[in-house]
Here is the input.
Amino acid sequence: MMKPKTIISAVLLIFVAVSAGFLVFKESTKSKKQTPAKNAPAAIPKDNAARDDVLIVYFFHGRARCKSCKIIEAFGKKTLESRFADELKSGRIVWRDIDLDEPENRHFVQDYQILSISLVISDMHGKEQKQWKNLEQVWDLLNNENAFIDYVQKEIEAWL
Here is the structure.
């Protein structure tokens, strides 16, 4: 029988190893402005077909939505509605709510390297996606609405 101290040490060692592995993985998958994935959307949404330049803000989620998921959605929408109202109205920026549990949307997981609930911005010119970015820092800012909104605003402004 193992001593309690040995069990605790083993559990802590496993926790540290898994945490370090996750951090290395997260760092290696951080995305700057990225070029289109092979299967990335090839067309501007139908309601904006007349525009030559559209910035799509995707909110990717599953059918079941946790508290964090709802916060990311609410803060993301609030950012667009409060800081980019004119761009939303003109169609320069478009919000897209995508349920990844729907079979027709599963390709987005690979297209945008999605590991969990995500906000992704996609820069469309004509019918071609030029670049995209997964706004991964939204997870770190869930408890700070102002910082979350400022972060998303700065990311979007860099693309306009």
Q: What stands out?
A: Confidence is low (pLDDT under 50) at residues 18-25, 27-46.
